[in-house]
Structure formats: C-alpha cells, structure tokens
Amino acid sequence: MNEVKTNMKEFEELLLQTVKSDSDTFIWDMVGPEIIKVPIRIKSFNSYKKQISFEVDSRAKNYMKNLISSNGLLKMFMPNVQFIFVAPVFKYSGNSLIVGYPSASKRHDRRKSKRFEPLVPISCKLGTLSKECFDISLGGFSLIVNKMEYNKASMEIGQVFDCKVGFPLEKVNITGQIVNVKDIKPFELDRFPYGAKKISFQVGGTDGEYHKNVENIGKGIQKLINDLV
Fold this sequence. Notes:
This protein is an alpha+beta fold. Helices cover 21% and strands 45% of the residues. It contains 4 helices and 14 strands.
C-alpha cells in the first residue's frame, strides 16, 4: 500500500460515518490463501492525540497476537466507507484496543475502479531510473520522483520511454509516453518532505501482456475488498 499522507479531516468524517451507522470495523490479515477477520467497534476517537479506541470481542483474543505485526501495526478495514488503512497499536489490553491514526491508507472507489493504487509493489525501470508505480490502469501508470531525479532524467510532456514494468509474476517491456507532470507539495507525501513530481505515463494499446497483468491485479484487489466485506 502506498504511504500517502491521509487527509485527517476526511478520515475523521469516515470515522463519524462508521460510528453513526453502528458498523463494525475489521482487523484483518492474510494467512496463506485465507483472510482472517476480527470485528471491532469504535468507542471514541481523539483528534488531538490522533488516537482511536475500539472495543474488541473477547472471543477474538486468540487471534489478536497473530494479527499485530512485528513492528506493532494492524491492518484495518471499515466496510461501510470502503476504507483500508494501517495503524500503529498504542495499547491492547483485555477488550480494549487503542490505535493511532493511519500510517498508510487506501479508499476503494467503485466509480474509479479503472485506476487504482496497487496493494503489491509494481516496479518500473526506465533508463537508469527505477521506481515503484504510484498508481496504475489499463491506459497507463504514474511514478513519484524527487526533484533531483526529475531534473536528471530530463522528463517532459510528450517524451517517450522504453520501460520495464515488474509485475508480481513477470516483467513486461512497454513503451510509455509522458502525458502529465504534477507538482507534489512539501509534506504531501511522507517520503518527500521537500516536494516531488508525479509523472503520468500513457501506455500504447498494443501492450497485451501489460493489460493482462493490470487486469489480474485489479481483479485481485476487488476480490480482497469483497472478501473483507
């Protein structure tokens, strides 16, 4: 999941929607091919401390230790607002769980299913530059580069690159043309406190292997969303 800085105001609105609808939130993880889900309920959240308090069903105690990762993070999902996020655990005792606001997040929008942020790393190499795709679609993909990388590569709209895209199961050679360059403001992304550039590439319509892999990843994300719900 891309570590995009979560808009805290929007996140708190999603928390309020979840509380008002009396909906469960789920802690989840993959164990082999299976998804383990533990339902929890929001008790309260603190905007100043950026913490959320949950009530955990006592029957879920046996699962909790396995779901908290080695670096103290939990994968969470609010199905009513289609929001997946990763949160640091501050305290877990008995039926009480306190986590911090998201360190990474993704909202699944069914209306925009053609373009998505991949939940698995997809690399892209063009020339000497190698980056992870920020988002991807059948029509193209985008990369985030810092200003030094951008200037060194002399990237301009209309420029065409031979690219090697590393999907989970294979690497595919494609031709990508830059169609847009967008400025990323300082601290908009955690990894780029001094700002960056979002470079959008268009992929030609004849790259069948690229399209096949993108479709498979999209189906996998949709299946994950459906299984979590």
